[in-house]
Amino acid sequence: MNIQSNEDLNQEVLSVIMSSKQQLQIFTEEAICPICLDFFTNPVILDCGHNFCRSCITQSWGKKEINSCPECREEFTERNFRVNRALANLAEKTRKLKLDPKVKESEIRCEKHQEDLKLFCETDKKLICLICRDSREHREHDFLPMNEAVEMYKDQLKSSLDSLTEKKSAVLQTELNQKRKISEVREQASSLQTHITSEFTKMHQILTEKEQRLLGDLREEEERIVETMEKNLREIQENLNSIEEELTKLQKQMDQKDHLIFLREEVNQKWSTGDDIQMITVASAVLPIERFKGPIQYMAWKKMIDFIHPAPASLTLDPCTAHPQLILSEDRTSVRHKNQRQSLPRSPRRFDSWAFVLGSKGFTSGRHYWEVEVRDKTEWGVGVTRESAKRMGGIDPKPESGYWVVGLISGKGYFALTSPTGLCLKPDVNPQKIGVFLDYEGGQVSFYNVDNMCHLYTFTYTFTERIFPIFNPGWNFDGKNPALLTICGLKGH
Questions:
Q1: What is the per-residue pLDDT across 376-425, written as a single tens digit (0 to 9) for each?
Q2: Please, are residues 416 and 422 in contact by the beta-carbon 8 Å criterion?
Q3: Which of these, 126, 171, 232, 458, has the minimum number of CB atoms within 10 Å of its CB?
Q4: DSSP helix, strand, coil percent of the chain (3-state; round to 5)
Q5: Among residues 257, 370, 378, which one has the least CA distance to residue 310?
Q6: Which of 159, 147, 140, 94 has its CA nearest to residue 120?
Q7: How many Cα atoms are found within 13 Å in the side-chain-facing hemisphere of 69?
Q8: Widest Cα–Cα separation across the chain
Q9: Contact, 7 vs 130, CB < 8 A?
Q10: Whole-angstrom Cα distance, residue 192 to residue 186?
Q11: In Å, what is the CA distance from 56 to each residue of 12, 43, 99, 332, 406?
Q12: CA–CA separation, 441 and 363 (whole Å)
């Protein structure tokens, strides 16, 4: 019964295998390199879509001056190819079937029995004939019809292909994102280059105009003085000509050798002694050197301040927002902490837990810059805040709460109030003044050490409401932080 069943099975397998031979041949051909006609080794894919062994295409291109595909003859400017991992897996699976890539379908035979290979031995992972199946060597092995083996390995390949396709899609997206980031940086750099060039062009123009104006004034002053001197010089030359004429006549008379003629002309001639000639003195005048050889660079710089934007602003403090323990100067440009609470009306505008005070002016557009003196202070904080930010009770002055602040904490150093724990800053030189730059449309708040204009930190944010400068002189409970925190407006400072 078993023998009969085996024979029936053989017949069925034969019919299935015959129908699967063409699929097997296609399966095998897909894994063969068109150059070496062997299974792919380290297959790579060209830009045209054709595949070759890496060594085969490298050797092929090494013999040519023009890089082209050996199959479609498409030419490439560069020798670019990508590893084809899916094809490498296919070639490896096909290689395990122990098929000869150079043998045609009609020539596939069992080496031992010279019979058609009909079955696939799952145990040995190779094709066998029907006689092999019944041999002692394969008696306890598991077999599959060739078409089922093909389908099984195709399923495995499909899984690999799907996985690689998914990974390829992810890598392509990553590549796209990276290219986008590179493009963004290049566009930003181009925009910044334009901005820098524009800013310096304005300064160059101001300096050039100042230079040309000063040179023009110098030329006018030179012409005015030289014109007077040249007029005086002409009068001197006229006198000189008159004297030379008299001298010539006298010399001619002195050279007269005929005594009779000499005496007759001498008696009748009245010679000039020069007493009637008006002597003209040298006109003396000098250029106003103090005007043209003073501290020219400083004078030009002072003049440029009127055109610089943004120049250090002359801000004042808003007493209605100051913590009750803060003392403001009469001109409202300085603030310090006093360990005594003042009797002030409660207001949602006033800070009651942090030693903060706002500037009296807020901004909804434009670029603004101001400087704050923090000299001799052991604690301080400066920055900006949005108008709607919470001021009363417990607040966390971070960007998420509408605060963008840097400062100094006694014993801990300089910091930027970032989330979640803040960021330590390490300036090369301890700042005596802090510069704060707000670019509303650009969404930027930057801080600088005014002593050397070194950048300390930058916050970025999209501002949508009024932004106010904020100041914190720090607590002075221990008496070690009495120094004033002062706004240093350029004008009048």
A1: 999 999 999 999 999 988 899 999 999 999 999 988 999 999 988 889 99
A2: yes
A3: 171
A4: 40, 20, 40
A5: 370
A6: 147
A7: 17
A8: 183
A9: no
A10: 10
A11: 42, 9, 21, 82, 62
A12: 11
Q: Which of these, 47, 52, 20, 40, lies nearest to 89 by C-alpha position?
A: 40
Tokens of 188: 């930003």
Angle at CA of residue 303, ends 299 and 304, nearest 5°: 115
Take residue 13 and report the two structure tokens written for it. 């397998």
Q: Could you write out the three-class secondary structure of 73-128?
A: CCEECCCCCEECHHHHHHHHHHHHCCCCCCCCHHHCECCCCCCECCEEECCCCEEE
CA distance 254 to 233: 31
Q: Supply 419's token pair.
A: 């989330």
Amino acid identity of residue 15, one-letter, is S
DSSP notation for 360-407: S--BSSSEEEEEEE-TT-SSEEEEEEETTS--SSS---SGGGTEEEEE
Pull the structure tokens for residue 154: 């195709």
Amino acid, single-letter form, for residue 192: L
Closest CA to 378 of 409, 355, 405, 407: 409
pTM score, two decimals?
0.55
- pLDDT digit string, tens, across residues 244-273: 888 888 888 888 788 777 777 766 666 666
Q: Is the peptide bond before 310 cis (omega within 30 degrees of 0)?
A: yes
Dig out the tokens for 363 from the structure: 């901004």
The Cα 489–Cα 100 span in angstroms is 88
